[in-house]
């Protein structure tokens, strides 16, 4: 008796979603045309992409949100490099105008013409932080005084507090010109505007001006009020920054009886230094990689507060410490910060003829 013949059996697709039995053929997977697998969009060359189906105004809205919350330049760059569409929309004025100041934290050693063009694009888009950052770079680093001042003024007109305060410092010191170019009244007016917007350094500067009668009629009690307000705002900013900052609270709530309440001090509470603005970080790095004070030449010096970065534009432009004569500051705000962070333990009396060669002394 002959052995039974074995045959291969499988299902073949005969139509849309139908499966028929066919002997002698290989088994195939039965897939319905209505299956979600077959209806998925193709992502190969020439196919469609889910991103292409999202409306452009929605993509721009998402990019604007990402731009305003960027914590470093890489956050924005990585998004713009995802695909051609995002790269095109990320460079639109609507998105560039919302970039956060941390997105402009370019390192001085990485400065290039491409970085310069990007900042200019942000300026043209109306970004105030870009106006301030590029204005500071051009005024102090590239020594383009007129254009740098114009960029900061563009932001100051729209109530950008750091720009207002920086212009006040320029007016107080006569930066970019001679000693006769100082305009104390203009400096006080700019400081008052920035102080109204809550700028801590401007509040402290205005308080000292009123207390000392510098560029404005002397009003000691009014000046003390601004100094207390600056100290209070500084303390609130530190306490609201995180849990670690609360370790400083016992020193403030139980002040030393010999020194009195730190809120009434000319230099504020002994709290951590505030976060440095990317523009000031750029200035400090720019001159540090070039040799610091020695890169300025002609006896010029940098502001002694490490978080400032401003250089003198002429000899003896900044006021020096009236006690030691070693350090010099572009403003009272920088003096107050540096006193708490460093100079308080370093300051020592020096000979009067060595300490009094500046345009004006500051008292510690």
Q: What would a concise description of this structure say?
A:
The chain has 364 residues and is mainly alpha-helical.
Total helical elements: 15
Separation of termini? 118 Å
Helicity range: 40-55%
- Our Rg estimate from Cα atoms comes to 32 Å
Which structural class do you get from the secondary structure elements?
mainly alpha
What does the model show?
With 364 residues, the chain is mostly helical. It contains 15 helices and five strands. The protein has helices spanning 56-68, 73-80, 84-90, 93-96, 113-124, 128-141, 145-157, 161-173, 184-196, 200-212, 220-239, 249-253, 278-288, 332-346, 352-355, and strands spanning 9-15, 18-23, 319-321, 328-329, 361-362. The strands form two sheets. Strands 4-3-5 form a three-stranded mixed sheet. A two-stranded antiparallel sheet has the order 1-2. A hairpin with a 6-residue loop joins strand 3 and strand 4. Helix 5 crosses helix 6 and helix 6 packs antiparallel against helix 7 (145-157). The protein is globular, with a radius of gyration of 32 Å. The model is unreliable at 8-22, 30-44, 250-258 and 352-360 (pLDDT under 50).
Brief descriptors of the model:
single chain; mainly alpha; 45% helix
Secondary-structure blueprint:
Layout: E1 9-15, E2 18-23, H1 56-68, H2 73-80, H3 84-90, H4 93-96, H5 113-124, H6 128-141, H7 145-157, H8 161-173, H9 184-196, H10 200-212, H11 220-239, H12 249-253, H13 278-288, E3 319-321, E4 328-329, H14 332-346, H15 352-355, E5 361-362
Helix pairs in contact: 5-6, 6-7, 6-13, 7-8, 8-9, 9-10, 10-11
């Amino acid at each position: 008796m002959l052995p039974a013949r074995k045959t291969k059996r499988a299902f073949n697709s005969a139509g849309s979603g139908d499966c028929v039995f066919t002997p002698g053929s290989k088994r195939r997977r039965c897939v319905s045309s209505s299956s979600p697998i077959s209806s998925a969009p193709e992502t190969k060359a020439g196919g469609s992409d889910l991103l292409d189906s999202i409306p452009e105004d929605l993509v721009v809205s998402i990019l604007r949100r990402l731009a305003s919350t960027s914590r470093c330049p890489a956050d924005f760059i990585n998004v713009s490099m995802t695909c051609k569409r995002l790269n095109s929309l990320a460079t639109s004025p609507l998105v560039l105008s919302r970039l956060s100041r941390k997105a402009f934290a370019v390192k001085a050693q990485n400065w290039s013409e491409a970085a310069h063009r990007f900042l200019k694009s942000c300026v043209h888009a109306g970004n105030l932080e870009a106006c301030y950052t590029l204005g500071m770079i051009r005024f102090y680093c590239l020594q383009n005084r007129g254009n740098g001042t114009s960029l900061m003024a563009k932001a100051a007109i729209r109530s950008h507090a750091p720009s207002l305060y920086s212009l006040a410092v320029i007016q107080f010191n006569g930066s970019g010109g001679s000693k006769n170019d100082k305009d104390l009244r203009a400096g006080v007016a700019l400081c008052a505007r920035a102080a109204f917007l809550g700028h801590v350094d401007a509040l402290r500067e205005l308080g000292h001006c009123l207390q000392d009668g510098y560029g404005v009629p002397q009003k000691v009690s009014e000046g003390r009020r601004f100094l207390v307000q600056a100290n209070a705002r500084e303390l609130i900013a530190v306490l609201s920054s995180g849990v670690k900052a609360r370790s400083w609270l016992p020193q403030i709530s139980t002040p030393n009886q010999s020194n009195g309440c730190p809120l009434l001090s000319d230099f504020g509470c002994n709290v951590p230094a505030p976060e440095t603005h990317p523009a000031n970080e750029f200035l400090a790095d720019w001159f540090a990689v070039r040799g610091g004070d020695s890169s300025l030449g002609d006896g010029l010096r940098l502001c002694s507060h490490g978080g400032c970065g401003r250089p003198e534009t002429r000899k003896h432009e900044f006021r020096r410490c009236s006690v030691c004569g070693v350090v010099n500051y572009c403003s009272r705000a920088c003096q107050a910060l540096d006193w708490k962070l460093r100079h308080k333990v370093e300051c020592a009396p020096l000979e009067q003829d060595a300490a009094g060669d500046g345009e004006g002394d500051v008292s510690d």
